[in-house]
Amino acid sequence: MEFLVKEMEHTMVIKTPNDLFVRLLYEINSAEKQITRALPKLARAADDSNLADAFKEHLEETRGQVERIEQAADTIPDIRVKRVKSYAMESLIEEGQELIEAVEKGPLLDAALIGAAQKVEHFEIAAYGTLCSLAEQLGYTEARDILAETLKEEKSADDKLTKLAKKDVNKKAG
């Protein structure tokens, strides 16, 4: 079975695990770049200073993750990272923006922003987990190690958001 993926102006045919790895690498590259544009908005919308700081810190991490995607690609012959729009990430970010517009700034919005940010983190955890698994299967050990570092950061960001929600933010919201 062939999977067809819409790529900018043409269709990318996915026939092999390598094709899938390349497609997912392109997609996560787009996703991370979208996140770098969204995180400052989340930080400005947050009322809780710890939450705003967490978004700002993750922005810096995300910039490093974009660089790591390039580094991972550079370890594999004949791969150059292209931009294939991540429609899933676009939708998740749009959902966060809708919350910012629909909920008054304060504790309830903070709780909503944590939920929206965790959806993004879970998407990224799934994407990087899949990339690491495929890289392992394909023998891309160096790329796997680079991507595993980002996977660890994404899990840590998710844990930090959970702790913020449980410790303080959700209690204030309700």
UniProtKB/TrEMBL annotation:
Q: What is this protein called?
A: Uncharacterized protein
Q: Which domain of life is it from?
A: Bacteria
* Listed CDD domains: YciF (cd07909)
What PANTHER family does the record tag this protein with?
PROTEIN YCIF
Q: Which Pfam families match?
A: DUF892
